[in-house]
Amino acid sequence: MKTVIGLGGAGCKIADKFGQREGYKVYKIDEGLQGTRCYAFKKVSSMEEAESSVPSLKSFFKGLTKDVLFIIAGGGKISGASLAILEQIKNKRIEILYVRPDLDTLSSTNIQSEKIVSQVLQNMTRSGAFEKMYLFDNQKIQEILQGVSLLKLNDSINEVIARSYDLCNFYQEQDSVFGQSGQVDDISRIATFGFISFDDDMHRTCFNLKNMTHAEIFYVVNEKILDEDSELLYKIKQQVKSVSHEGMKSLQYSVHPSEYDGVQAYCRLHTHYIQQEEN
Predict the structure, then answer these.
(1) What does the alpha-carbon distance between residue 128 and residue 220 come to, in Å, rounded to a whole number?
(2) Looking at the predicted structure, is the pLDDT value of residue 164 above 80?
(3) Among 57, 95, 114, 196, fewest CB within 10 Å belongs to which?
(4) Taking a C-beta distance cutoff of 8 angstroms, is the pair 213, 244 a contact?
(5) 8-state DSSP, 152
């Protein structure tokens, strides 16, 4: 069981997606919330006010598991409460799931706030304060979700975020029928997820991760294809080569049987380099 803490409107909606899956215990913090494991944060007018308004959450966080996934979207005022909240659970094994909003829709003040939160959390993660920081970019995910209507877009983005994290972690713990092992070094704590089309090798990532040092690819293959396609291993190896580049320290893949149709490929990409904002 893993605890998921959603902070702010977007963080809470993503947390709800995890709550629909097995193995997660969800807590939510935002203005005006009601319900089980929900904390109603006071309305604030700035990030600084949010930081200074964080009360003791010891009673609220009673029952947290050892492993915690903390979800936050940058740009909002309540994101200023992040560090003060994280300080109260620093004895846990914490992963950060950070969503960069569409910067084109933010004011200059909110853009600056987003940069501050992103950079601080990345530097803390790289120093070892957090186990991992997974980066997502709303604009990159929109590119993956071609053909989704406006009314369904935000919900679909949240589903991609939860699904990519959940699936890669699930298959990491499952036995594979074939694969190539590797090791992600301890300093490569900045990461993202992606999808690879098995038909055309097109790579779609949830964040434009620069200076990737490690990659993990999880192939989920229909059992009939596993049994009958004599070219499958060759195709997989060729695709794995297309992901590799100079400077990578490790590239590992695993092949897992499935009842679903076709071949699906999910990837988790890592680096130890701080990701700067793109101009």
Answers:
(1) 32
(2) yes
(3) 57
(4) no
(5) H
Task: Identify whether the C-beta of residue 31 lies closer than 8 Å to the C-beta of residue 40.
Answer: yes
Q: Of 213, 221, 212, 235, which is closest to residue 266 (Cα–Cα)?
A: 221
Let me know: does 219 contact 265? Beta carbons within 8 Å: yes
Angle at 137 between CA 202 and CA 32, to 5 degrees: 145
Nearest 5°: the CA angle 150, 6, 132 is 105
Distance CA 250, CA 212 (A): 10
Is the model's pTM score more than 0.85? Answer: yes
Helix extents (H) in 34-87 = 47-52, 82-87
| Long-range pairs for 49-53: beta carbons < 8 A, 24 or more residues apart | 49/77, 49/80, 50/77, 50/78, 50/79, 50/80, 50/81, 51/80, 51/81, 51/83, 51/84, 53/81
Q: Tell me: the pLDDT tens digits for 136-159?
A: 999 999 999 988 888 999 999 999
- Per DSSP (E only), the strands in the chain are 2-7, 24-31, 38-41, 67-73, 93-100, 132-137, 178-180, 190-196, 203-205, 214-222, 250-258, 263-271
In the three-class reduction of DSSP (H, G, I as helix; E, B as strand; rest coil), residue 157 is classed as helix
Cα 79 to Cα 52: distance, rounded to the nearest angstrom: 12
Specify whether the CB–CB gap between 97 and 136 falls below 8 A: yes
Q: What pLDDT shows up at residue 131?
A: 97
d(CA 65, CA 156): 28
Amino acid in the structure at residue 216:
E
